[in-house]
Automatic annotation (TrEMBL):
Matching NCBIfam families: SepM_fam_S16 (NF041438)
Biological process per Gene Ontology, one example term: proteolysis
Span of domain Lon proteolytic: 231-347
InterPro entries associated with the record: Lon_proteolytic (IPR008269), Lon_Prtase (IPR027065), PDZ (IPR001478), PDZ_sf (IPR036034), Ribosomal_Su5_D2-typ_SF (IPR020568), Ribsml_uS5_D2-typ_fold_subgr (IPR014721)
Enzyme class: hydrolase
Annotated source species: Sporosarcina luteola
Alphabetic keyword roster: Hydrolase, Protease, Serine protease
Superkingdom, taxonomy of origin: Bacteria
EC code: 3.4.21.53
Name of the protein in question: endopeptidase La
Active site: S236, K281
Gene Ontology molecular function terms on file: ATP binding; ATP-dependent peptidase activity; serine-type endopeptidase activity
Length: 350
């Protein structure tokens, strides 16, 4: 009898471990938190005596388990996401994290340049090599280059201007060997790679390294700006970064004394781009006592709506969730940073 009880106990423990810990081939997202940007964004000599706050919002994404998968079917505060909605095909944990950090870095770059432009302070942008975004399976670079590498030179020629990398590679043919100098984890590495056809249906037999890349830029400002985001990734804090940087660059308090949060990618021209998880960010913002929430009012053409029945703009998602949870928080639609600034300009001081 005692052995039987021990056996049942062991089976129960194993079942619970399976239920709560076994990773499924999917992800679960949940509301995250609100982070006051004043200690995260640091403008050298900036104005820090503002009464209100600008906050960035996050969502929590992790591997689904049997328990969270079932629980999500009965909760409007959990959502199951297929892997294809989170990761690219063949992307591992390291590559995913690097991509998220890169998206965050790019959002900060745009936030700083837009903020400085709005207050009339020039910035200095210089070319900073080629960032490897993706390495195609079975391409020439597969097993040689890694996501996150920064290409600095081709056959000893330093990359110093936009378009130079593509121009140098285009002079090569199939089976040509090229020496690639890359910066990897703060060290310079030289790799010899034999070029081959790019393994992509859109490449049409072109010869190359078989990578997706982005020409990088380095930004210098006066005053200096540092943004400390730790483990937060993705581009969705761009709008709020822009507003916080402007708030520290200016003497006036843009917040007018309110606790303000929001979401949206900041594009180079000041447009606020669509992001994921706007509904869950509304839940988190309400929980943290946010009074005003900026949501991207992204343009969804009729053909997009027809092809994706039920699709909503971020603003529509945010309003729907706000109504459902009964929050008193004001949801404000924005298409550009100027929309947010205009709203704040007309906002009476608290």
């Amino acid at each position: 009898m005692r052995l039987k009880r021990v056996g049942l106990y062991a089976i129960t423990v194993l079942f619970l471990l399976f239920l709560f810990l076994y990773p499924l081939d999917a992800y679960v997202s949940k509301p995250g938190g609100a982070y006051d940007l004043s200690p995260i964004v640091e403008v050298e000599g900036g104005d820090m005596d503002d009464v209100g706050t600008f906050s960035l919002m996050t969502i929590s994404i992790g591997k689904a388990t049997p328990f969270s998968y079932v629980a999500s079917q009965f909760s409007d505060r959990m959502k199951i996401l297929p892997i294809a909605k989170v990761r690219r095909e063949g992307e591992d944990d390291k590559e995913y994290n690097i991509r998220q950090k890169k998206l965050m870095s790019d959002s900060q770059f745009n936030a700083i340049t837009v903020a400085f432009s709005k207050v009339g302070i020039p910035v200095d942008v210089t070319y900073d090599g080629v960032f490897v975004v993706r390495v195609l399976k079975d391409g020439a670079a597969d097993g040689n280059l890694e996501v996150g590498d920064k290409i600095r030179a081709i056959d000893g020629t330093q990359l110093q201007e936009p378009g130079q990398f593509a121009a140098l590679i285009s002079t090569k043919g199939k089976d040509d060997k090229v020496m690639i100098s890359v910066e990897r984890e703060a060290e310079l590495v030289d790799l010899e790679i034999t070029l081959s056809e790019i393994p992509s249906p859109n490449a049409e037999g072109r010869i190359g390294l078989g990578i997706e890349f982005q020409e990088d830029r380095e930004l210098t400002t006066n005053p200096k700006v540092d943004i400390h985001t730790a483990e937060i990734g993705g581009p969705s804090a761009g709008l709020m970064f822009t507003l916080e940087i402007m708030n520290q660059l200016m003497d006036e308090d843009l917040t007018k004394g309110y606790n303000i949060a929001g979401t949206g990618e900041m594009l180079a021209d000041g447009t606020v781009g669509r992001i994921g998880g706007a509904d869950f960010k509304v839940i988190a913002a309400d929980r943290e006592g946010v009074e005003i929430f900026f949501a991207p009012d992204d343009d969804l053409p009729d053909e997009v709506r027809e092809a994706n029945p039920g699709i909503m703009t971020n603003y529509e998602e945010a309003v729907k969730k706000a109504e459902k949870i009964g929050t008193k928080m004001k949801i404000v639609p924005v298409r550009t940073v100027d929309d947010a600034l205009d709203y704040l300009k007309d906002l009476p001081s608290k």
